[in-house]
Write a structure and sequence with these properties.
The chain is of the alpha/beta class and 250 residues long. It is built from eight helices and ten strands. The protein binds adenosine-5'-triphosphate. Pfam families: ABC_tran (PF00005).
Length: 250
Amino acid sequence: MAQLEVGHVSVAFDGVQVLDDISLTVPAGHIACLLGPSGCGKTTLFHVVAGLSLPDSGSVELDGRDITGAPGQLAYMLQKDLLLPEKTIVDNVSLPLVLRGVPRAQAREQAIALFDTFGLAGTADRWPSELSGGMRQRAALLRSYLFSQDFMLLDEPFSALDAFTKADMHAWFLDVAERFGTTALVVTHDVDEALELADEIFVMRGAPQAGRPTRIVGTERIPCPRAERASFALTEEFLEHKRQVLALLG
Ligand SMILES: Nc1ncnc2c1ncn2[C@@H]1O[C@H](COP(=O)(O)OP(=O)(O)OP(=O)(O)O)[C@@H](O)[C@H]1O
């Protein structure tokens, strides 16, 4: 488990202020969602948190350790699953361990031990093209998980999936995160998805190209226990949170 702290992050591109003084904390073991409209700067913040780019000011800390601009400190998964088509599922998934110097056979064994939990039983020797979108997403999530069990940063991980698969994946992801005590920050522009997954939702608002830099305008805390999330969307409480979030989004 690891706590993430983003402190006073600002980013401008070519004189356009995109992010203005963004601060947020994801407590250890929580799932947080970063919610905002298209073009507001979610990917820009994702890159800063992942250490792939440096902010103009501000910092990123993992468990109190400054990781600003330092890639490879936490697991991240991009919107597209990006499995390598010429590698089998087990070789794709065990890649982070191999890159870290674990012998290939041992890396495969470690990965395969988690295949059942990640809903991938029987797929080890299949090719990515032979799997459904949901399965590929699970494989990509397992690969991220093997990179770092403590903290996962996910950019719209379920956006390419149909509604049924998405609902299944939400339930499954909550279960896996609970079992492993994973802390996660999930980027999404889908309000319902944020409400179904998050312990807290950070709502971003802004239109940088129109001269309005993006800020975090509010945090919505969702106290619904994970075990009750599957039916949460049918409750009055869900609608009340949704109203609050939509009001924040404007
Ligand atoms: N490298 C760059 N150079 C110049 N401008 C950039 C760069 N990267 C992003 N921007 C601008 O920053 C703003 C935020 O972009 P970003 O991709 O972070 O938004 P987003 O919220 O992730 O959007 P979407 O949900 O559509 O992916 C946009 O106005 C974009 O044009």
